[in-house]
Amino acid sequence: MGRLDGRVALISGGARGLGLAMVDAFVAEGAQVMIGDVLADEALSVALRLGDKASSVHLDVTDEAEWADAVSATTARFGHLDVLVNNAGTAEGAPLWETSLESYRRVIEVNQVGVFLGMRSVIGAMTEAGRGSIINISSMDGLVGSPRIISYIASKWAVRGMTKAAAMELAPRNIRVNSIHPGNVHTLLASTPGQDRTQVREMMEAATLRHAPMGRVGEASEIAKMAVFLASDDSSYSTGSEFVADGGFTAGYPSPGSPNPF
């Protein structure tokens, strides 16, 4: 018996990176999964690999109509919908004084508006199913500040607050809403075009070693396991809460004068 037997999940941004890790973990635990992504060919390839346990749909999370279509496609294919993972995200980095309004809005549209539209779109289907778990992927940057990514910071803090507000409103419908706050996890979002991924991973590992007690970058599979927990009955009394997986990065600050006090 899998922990997610009988569950049907819609996972945005599920074609690669963290989303793909969650798709694989959910299917392994018995769920049926609709993979929503703007990378339609990659999402279809993943679905074909997983067989009748998965399907795919084009999903631009900033598009209200595409959310409606994704929910309809999920219920038509699998009969119901009781788990949503709002995973799709983006980031653009620059100092505050160099961040254009257009750049700021692009990030907000995907990371914040996309989560709003996703949560709103599944309420009817989850109410009809009699249960629901909405899992919003925020970040450790939704708990603390960080320079050069003000739009990303703003969006991830917003996701944290939206999660709590939605949890309070949806609890009477037996729909739980929680957020996951990953730390440094090497996925494609952590790289930009032209960067060598091995070099990026080495830079992230060095930064994490300096600041996180566990001293390593997280694996996408570790975040996926937390999502499985929140989608399952194992978390049946948890709603409106932050679940942090950052290797201790946000637990505190190192002692002065020591580059690696841990």
From TrEMBL:
Entry annotated with the keyword Transmembrane helix: no
InterPro entries in the record: NAD(P)-bd_dom_sf, SDR_fam
UniProt keyword annotations, A-Z: Oxidoreductase
Alphabetized GO MF terms: oxidoreductase activity
SUPFAM superfamilies found in the cross-reference section: NAD(P)-binding Rossmann-fold domains
PANTHER family: DEHYDROGENASES, SHORT CHAIN, ESTRADIOL 17-BETA-DEHYDROGENASE 8-RELATED
Family under the similarity heading: Belongs to the short-chain dehydrogenases/reductases (SDR) family.
Protein name according to UniProt: Unannotated protein
Annotated organism of origin: freshwater metagenome
Species classification: unclassified sequences, metagenomes, ecological metagenomes
